[in-house]
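Justification of computing resources. Each target in the renewal requires a structure prediction run like the one illustrated here; the chain below, 274 residues long, is used simply to show the kind of job we budget for.
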Amino acid sequence: KSSTAFRLAAEAAARGVRAVATTTTRIAASEIDAAPAVVEVTSVAVTGAALPLAQLDAALARSGWCLLVDAARGEKRSGITPAQVDGLLAMAPQLGLGLIAVEADGSRQLPIKAPAAHEPALPSCATLVVAVAGVDALGRDLTPDQVHRPERIRALLGLPPAAPVRLTPAQMARLLLDTQGGARGRPPGARRRVLINKVADAAQLALARLVAARAVAAGVTALIAAVGGADTAPVRERWGPLGVVVLAAGQARRMGKPKQLIAVDGMTMVRRGV
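Resulting structure tokens:
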């Protein structure tokens, strides 16, 4: 999820669009090094003071995008609160911001999880919510060293608490789509996507397609991706519900009869178009 937020911000900046990446949970200190500029929020700001507008503007002018985190240092760094993300959006016109990318949930660097009762920490202003999983979660045992919050995954999927189970594509799709899984807490009106990440070879692509097909059947667009590969296009395939509009109207005043209904080689024009 951190890689995805960073990649979105970097691609926006490359197109001349100012972007801020942040988190409403925590981020590993080692991941912060990938950001071209870091703006820190003091403890005063965390209690409700204004976000550092001048520092953000300077960082964006210098790098195009920046990471916004709490100033308190440690193995993990906190970000900002969901309410502060709403405040950052209010500052967007002053900063010339075109994108705010927020990591709203953590998984202890494991490839899949089911959220706890307090997760995800989504800002009310979110317009697009992306449920992310690593394709390498498929085939893994539902144990704490393989997936995050396995007890919640089992409960959501209706699985016995202790029986040996390996995650299937159908189960991954359900985790990503369920209102108690990847769709939990989605603000009203926010669009959603499914992102199946870390797809590196043909076997993983085939498995990811099984997950994507179930997402599309539920009316949700799915992206099959390898976001961490900086030298490659991050999205390998896009799977989405398809809408087709056939323009077949008109009064046919000059023709004198609807040309859509004229048969050519035994088939009407409108049927041929469809």
